[in-house]
Structures
1.
Amino acid sequence: MQLLDTIIANKCYGRRNLSGINMWQEISRIGKKLVDHGLVESHFGNISVRIGNKMLITRSGSALDELTENSVVEVEVEGTSGLDLIASSETIVHREIYKNTSALGIIHAHCQFAVTESLLSDSGAIVPVDSEGQYFLHEIPIVKGGIGTPELAKNTARALTEHKGAIIYSHGTFAVGKILDEAYVVTTQIEHSCAVKYWYDLARQ
Ligand SMILES: [Zn+2]
């Protein structure tokens, strides 16, 4: 994880511009990685970054592997704004996470094994069986709530005060970081741990 720490140290989401890279380009880069690696289907999921009192978030229905400058909108962290209407339907969840944690980047994806494991689990969390997952995640909380509801926003934000990632039951993952690369690594780790657990449990039956 040392490389990731170096990347974090060299980036700053307090500014709109990262050494000539516009933030929408950073969001677009991560969106393409998510789709390319099968962590989400193109038209699902959403990504945001926090810049001071504002957040940039993908628009509702935008294709994560084809994001342009117009695919990202700026809304308030505290309180709603007019552009909420065209922002992701999960904007309320992103907002609540930013208000309750130190996250500066958030990724929501529909990872297949994470969703499957949430359906199979009969407890409120998934405990990884692989050593990497145990080391980095310890456990992955499962939260409940309808899409875009205040209940989901509250439950997800609460889970992410103590964890880097969580799974919404039957829906997908939410992962946070100081930068999007960190949230991306958490997303891949959750999906990897859930895949290993799925195959492990199946093989033992
Ligand atoms: Zn979703």
2.
Amino acid sequence: MMQWRRSRAVWGVILGVAATSQAGLFSGWNYRLSIQAGQWLNGEPLTNFPVLVVLGTHLEGFGYDQFLSPPFGDLRFSDVNETNEFSYEVEAWDVGGSSWVWVRVPVLTNGTVIKALWGKSGENAPPYTTNGAVWANQFGAVYHLSHSPTNPAPQIRDSTAFTNHGTCFGNMTAGQLTNGAVGKGLRFDGVDDYVNCGNSASLQPAHVTFSCWVKPMGIGSSSEAVWAFSKGRSGVSPYFSFGFQFWPDRSIIRSALGLDRDRYGSEIPFYTNSPFTHFTATYNRTNLITYQNGQVVTVSNYNAAINYNLADPNLHLGQWIYSTFIRRINGILDEVRIEQVARSSNWVWATYLNMASNDLFFAYGPAQKKGGTLIFLR
Ligand SMILES: [Ca+2]
């Protein structure tokens, strides 16, 4: 005791810990970890932005055995002061490795600090972990592609509240859930595999952002154009509403838009056996902007409405098809998103970097345990 009293510096630190631990919502939680965004963002504060947080024993002081309501019933996220609780969704939880968690941050900008908290018994994962709350900011569909195709249909889960879940076709196997760009992704064989996600108003916005990670691993069912995903198909122009076409014979990928009665798009060099690459397209009835790995690569001016009035309006992952024209991709897809607004370039960049370089985007921890020192004060 005397030893502690002699040091004002140490005394101050202990009081600080005590005050922080008792002020917020989570005074009963034993562990906390600060997660700080680096100086990578371009000045625009991003509101209600879902960030990827990667937890695991690679983080100093972190242990899965510290969770007292396993597997993650006592996991919480908050602002730095522990006064606002943030919604989260677990994409995958692996006590033998890394766990992938999406957290909706009210305002994300350079230097933003969020906290992860855990270590409390008798807690349950809140409803926001499964009800789509993380994706409430104008997301129409979000596919993490982290579920086995051998699960009961619909196997491919949409994380939004719109539940645009997809059903697998082509006798896809458990082994086709494979390493993706974020946790697991889904391998399509380029022969008969695809996922039918159905249709709803949530998938037919006037302005749109659509995106995915893609890694082509062969030609697929046609050397002309195979599709990472297609919203809508018909045998007459415009043939589709939107999606990404990969052309093995031309070594390009195309952000495709069906407007009124014609088809449009922008082409970007892209190759079979390219590493995982992130593509995003935004359309706001002024510009179609296409991004590769978070950077603008093409801007095209169009102003017509997206044509959603097609014979088959469903969203398909892994293919476009009409009659005998079968266009199935051979490769891996991950994190397919349809958004109901044309996102800003800053939003697209942050989305990419947060996934591609998570340990650069965020500075983590170390994890700190509450407790021990407080006993001395009493
Ligand atoms: Ca994934």
